[in-house]
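Lab meeting prep.
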Amino acid sequence: MRVLIAEDEPLGAARLSDLLADLDPSIEVCGIVESIAEGREWYARNPPPDLIFLDIELADGQSFSLLSELKLECPVIFTTSYSQHALRAFEWNSVDYLLKPIGRAQLQNSLEKYRRRQPLPQELQALLKQLETPPEPRFLVSRGQQLRSFTASEIAYFEGHDKLVELVTLANERFAVPGTLEEIGHKLKPGAFFRANRSFLVQAAAVELLKPDAYGKLRVYLRPEGSTSISVSRSRAVAFKKWLGK
């Protein structure tokens, strides 16, 4: 964690830096500034810190003006000898408000408050993945009195007949499913399956072999073992190969 200290009393800044190192050796004090002007200069030359310890009364004025000028968004722990600024301090992205002299227990409590506000990296990654990745569509099928559910990734292809669509799994099981190939295609994640011709929606994992003919058509051999081969027209062949190569 990178920490910036804004403090116009050198002894106070040194004590705070020592306390931070003692409480958490992983904390890096990446800068100490004594004034608004120094803070402005530091920000112009460095990436934002993870946390700022900000004395309200700096050498050349109140630090609120620095927050306003730079539009700082990183969390702030205010430090001051005066209690009258507390209400204004919490209008900012404030974690805590520490009255000097700062004690070890006070500081530890403030750091714990800061950490509680920060999502764990693993949690954040999982959340982002969940937000970015829609759930995989599933298909409910029946056979006799039994119902089974398959995810799209378990399905090799859909084959349309005159009045029926069959779902064929990668495990070589066949089930009738309601709807048309067009309706099923709308339910699938874009790009997951390819409409090879009027009768087949194919997943890439089901493609075993391609054989082009002299006229630019493709003969596509499908998994699972024992499945049929299908024809892809010349007009669709380029798009099919491009999709398969993604």
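Slide two material, second protein:
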Amino acid sequence: MPVEEGLPSRFQVETPLKPQARENRLRLLVYWAVARSATGRRGRLVERTELRTERLLLRPFAFADVDDVVRYASDEQWSRYWVAAPAGPYTRRDGEEFIARAILDSWETRPQFAIVLGGTVIGGTGLNIDRESRIGELGYAVARSHWGEGIAPEAARAVIDWAFLAYGLEKVFARADARNVQSHRVMEKLGMRREALLRQHRMHGGERTDEVWYGLLRREWKERAP
């Protein structure tokens, strides 16, 4: 296991940990990150928030979400177009590391929401924020058992509305594998316009694939807002 850059020595571990010890260590990492943010080393600490839609609760990820995340992320069909998918099966450790990153990430630049339906986490959505350019890259993922139910656009729309106001963004954009037609439809339902086709732009499964980009400007968002 690599040593985390910049961590106090008491948190650095180079040998594998037992599950309980690993979870305890992740909690320590979170407390350390929050404390460091509060001192101003990473800028002001943005308050994490919850959003609600007609059917969904969108909230920050928590350690207790690991089982739900592993359940949907280990579905090979679900991860077919996921560039960051691990080379092998998605394991509990992968889920733990995902949750840790989601908790540790500063909401100044990377707010991440768990999508909760009926008390179960069925996906996630969030943004990578470029504060200087005032743009945000949207991402979303929903468990395959809930595909076709309009979950992704419902969740992403709430996050977009919140982000335009909370961050004063001028644009939100998203991208997807050119073969992932379902994701294209989600972006179109969000009012985004297709802006580019980037040929042979990324590696996935050992082959080069095309990527499409969609964008939504602030004025376009305001025009469609009720």
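Talking points for slide two:
The longest helix spans residues 19-38.
The chain has two domains: 1-44, 46-224.
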